[in-house]
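Supplementary notes for students who missed Thursday's class. We covered one full example, reproduced here. Read the sequence, then the structure, then the short commentary at the end.
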Amino acid sequence: MDDPEDIPAPPVMDTSTDAASTRRRLTTLPSREDILTLPLELRNLISGGVAGIVAKSFVAPIDRIKILYQVSSAEFHLRNLPRVAYNIVRDEGLSALWKGNTATMIRVFPYSGIQFMVFDRIKTYMLRQHEQKRAMGDSRAWGLSPVESLVAGCTAGSISVVCTYPLDLTRAQLAVLKRKKHHVNMGFRQVLYQNYEHRGLIGLFRGCTPTLLGILPYAGIAYALNEQGKRKIHNVLGREPTTMEKMQCGAFSGLVAQTISYPLEVTRRRMQTIGILPSGQSAITELGVQETSGRPSSMVTTMRLLFNEQGFRGMFKGVSMNWMKGPLAFSISFTVFDTVQTFVATDAERALRNPHRKG
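Structure (token representation):
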């Protein structure tokens, strides 16, 4: 038998080094090569979610004031915006301008991600069909046709709305809910649970009908105009649009789409908030009017009451704020998505989307 002193000792494990290595792996951001291993749909979902969060964060204060006007009887004047913003900051604090923005982030990541993912999936399918037709001698220009862009946009918008509507409902109610200083205020989870507890599953989708009716022209026109603008640059100039050109395409598409669908947005906001928040908890009083009471109504009833109360102008109350917010949000959203999507795309995917791009 060997002498115990001749038997080699087992190797000593350097646990401190292993632990440090594990921490580095957990805290290090994934590389582009790691991201490229993910399915295309998941990469587009992430790209769209990031684009939506960046865009919405920029315009959150405008959005909150706009919602207050939409759900109240206060007459809208653009010159009153600084006073309303000052009243909110004075009574609720600076962070109140981003009231409900956490709920917006929770909603907008899946909403924007699903929308961009579905649109790109349809777009990719159609572009591959075009490639096959061109291989057989078809001389059609590169890119989706206006009708194809419209159909893809409508489909993407409808699917994203249905999947995330309870989150949008909660976000709108949080934006109207008055924040009290030095008090524990209702958060996203509490408002969402309250909707379900009081009205059941149907209560989580109150106002969904005008939303779906509004998203068809809204998303359809926005995606169609944005896609056709970039397509024109591709086919006429033979190159990829610059960042500024992408922002211009996105801004114009957002301006047109939001204006056309705006009356349905006002209707949706009213259905989401009127008669739902407890008395005295609404921030509508910051506009100098009393909060509206009563039970939530149907879409047709809500539109009729709004028209009787404020006339045709009431259907477009606050639209000038959308003319400031919409182009900015759309230009940022579309441009960020294109940038992130291009960064995480393979060479073959880039070539399909943009045949003029090299590498």
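Commentary. The chain has a mean pLDDT of 79. The two ends are 67 Å apart (CA to CA). If anything here is unclear, bring it to office hours.
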